Write the structure tokens for this entry.
Amino acid sequence: MRIFITGGTGFLGRQLVPLLLGDGHNLLVLLRDQKKKNLLPRSRRIAFMAGDLAGISKLKLKIKK
């Protein structure tokens, strides 16, 4: 399953991402600060997208891709 995650580097996100990867899911993680992606495990099944939910209308096309 493909899963879109906001707050992936936050307290809950850092716990959730490894669990979802362990279950075999592919993740798209929305990050405000690209430097923080090193807080998450390295995996070919994680894609990162810069932005925040305040600009969700601009992100909709990127999310669909």
Observations:
- The mean pLDDT is 89.
- The chain is about 30% helix and 25% strand.
